Amino acid sequence: MNIQSSPGKKLFVLDTNVLMHDPASIFRFKEHDLFIPMIVLEELDHAKKGLTELARNVRQVSRFLDELICDANQQTINDGLPLSSIKHGPKAETTDGGRLYFQTSAMTALLPESMPGTLADNSILRIVLALTKELPDTTVILVSKDINMRIKAATLELLAEDYHNDQTLDDIDLLYSGAMVLEKDFWTVHGTKMESWQEKNRTFYKLEDPIVTEWYPNQYLYIEDETNFEAIVRSCDGQIAVLELAKDYRAKHNNVWGITAKNREQNFALNVLLDPNIDFVTLLGTAGTGKTLLALAAGLTLTLENKAYQEIIMTRETVPVGEDIGFLPGTEEEKMAPWMGALIDNLELLGSNAEHGEWEQSATSNIIMNRVKIRSLNFMRGRTFLNRYLIIDEAQNLTSKQMKTLITRAGPGTKIICIGNLSQIDTPYLTATTSGLTYVVDRFKTWPHGAHITLRRGERSRLADYASDIL
Fold this sequence. Notes:
31% helix, PhoH family protein, ATP-binding, six-stranded mixed β-sheet, ATP binding, nucleotide-binding, 3 domains, PhoH, single chain, Rossmann fold
């Protein structure tokens, strides 16, 4: 190993979980050098078998490393492999400065005898400690998704960081909310160059003002005064924007499959869910804010009444909250049934009607269930959904790669609804800032056929509202 040591230079030592989490992570460190210990390669080898997403990631890492090393001899391996030499990696992330080093000799450093932990973790810490002593002019940093590993490194006075490249935002509070409150004197200050007109019973406003540059397509604008002004940004072009007055779904005569909006955010959600020009909708909110109910009510209206879609497909990531219940018998739909309690509960509510008798309610439920399909995420790869209304529940548990796999399944005439709660993430190594749901909210906010809204008020019950606040 011939690592060039120089003041100000950085050498990142990658933990196994970083490569498992993002196969292209070796291309994400710009001009800095990388070091992969031999124990990491052994752990990757043990995890390569299977059909899970983790195993696929490990195999992709192996392909990248194989392409780097295929034409190398012992001398070039010792001198470091230039990451820019790979042909099939993400070129946008590849630079000319970074080199990849493998551990080619035994490296030992004494750890405290009482240091607990697995053999693999301690082996990596020994290597980081040895590199720190061998390269005094180089900043050696351990990169790991394992919090306990970083804590152990800190106790040894070693530099350790989380893998930040998969973070969409530095702070989840910066996430786009989909709505903006306007000042009460908004029209007085900014309405000097404003036009209004009606078209097909819809009211539009054309506004020219510098404030427009802060808006996004399909953003929800409202004024908190007696006018109850609520509008949707239909287009933004420089300092010119076109607004459409939002339809009020809080009125009973505008109910959606018997459901009316309970608050401002729910009203906007129904506006975009029922809009044929919007193909992708994300709904964020805590438990009881009505995410699933609104998505299903709009889906039933569009599918059964308006005939806009052939059927509703609902899927979700099967991550258990507690102990896993093990293998389940039956068909794909029967296996997914225990995970779809929220769907069944909401369909029972939507299928019930106090004005109808028991026979009519039973017939309605049968019609609804014939048009609602439950599908597993495991069988989504390679499929194309045509004229479908696709609901992805618990989307906060998906990675950005899984989210891309699902959204790219959409064929002509398909609408995708992603719903989730970023405070209830059950997938290991995912946080609110690295969740695939956060990723798509941020990436789709400028697309004219996408919309997002964060539901803030719980409408389940006073008990649920109090529990959300106090517990």
